[in-house]
Amino acid sequence: MAIVTKLQGLSSPLEADSEIQSFLAPHGITFERWEIPKTAHRLASKESLTDEEKEALIENFRPQLRRLSEQEGYTTTDMVCLSPTLPGLSDALSNFDREHYHTDDEVRFIVDGAGVFGFEGEDGRKFLIEVNAGEYIVIPANRWHWFYMKEGTGIKALRIFKDKEGWTPFYKALLKP
Q1: Do residues 79 and 158 touch, judged by C-beta distance below 8 A?
Q2: Is 59 part of any domain?
Q3: N or C: which end of the chain has fewer CB within 10 A?
Q4: Is 127 left (phi over 0), alpha (psi -120 to 50) or beta?
């Protein structure tokens, strides 16, 4: 279940989908819950996946991907699989855990595991949202954000793009004079 935390002035975490959606919408962030078909659970629960297994898992979500293509213009999907035992994991995560933005939306559907996205809201306040299996999130283009895995966990997520070239990260620290 998604949880929004670490917001100045927030007396308690937001956990209900409707509360999360209402909070995120003014910041341009989309949050939905998708059903994970039973046929996908076997593959999703494996520690690592071959390229063929990744494609088979993606196929389970073809109706949702077709809708996103028609409504939002997303054209490409791949899958990222990160686990605590992945060689070079800390190097891979170092690309995500610093504040950055992309010129394309960052779109993720979590198939298995969990992670945490941090955002800078429209008002400059920063907040975190923990995302878990079955949750879909869109961080709009040019929005400052970062991502990290919870210690000891892994994550499998569909990455959905309009244009992969728009996914180049621009880091906040590098933008300062």
Answers
A1: yes
A2: yes
A3: C
A4: beta
Burial of residue 123 (CB within 10 Å: 0-12, 13-18, 19+) is exposed
Dihedral (CA of 108, 174, 150, 145) sign:
negative
Overall domain count for the chain? 1
The predicted-structure confidence for 19-58, as pLDDT tens digits, reads as follows 999 989 999 999 999 999 998 989 998 988 999 999 999 9
Q: Which helix (H) or strand (E) holds 153?
A: none
Tell me if 16 is assigned to some domain.
no
Radius of gyration of the chain (CA): 16
Give the residue ranges of DSSP H helices in the chain: 17-24, 38-44, 51-59, 62-72, 89-93, 172-175
Matching residue, tokens 């995500």:
96
pLDDT digits (tens, 9 = 90+) for 61-81: 999 999 999 999 999 999 999
- CATH number reported for the structural domain that contains residue 83 in this entry: 2.60.120.10
In a domain, 9, yes or no: no
From 51, 62, 7, select the one nearest 29 (Cα to Cα): 7
Q: How far apart are the first and last CA of the chain?
A: 40
Q: What angle do CA 163, 165, 166 make, to 5 degrees?
A: 70
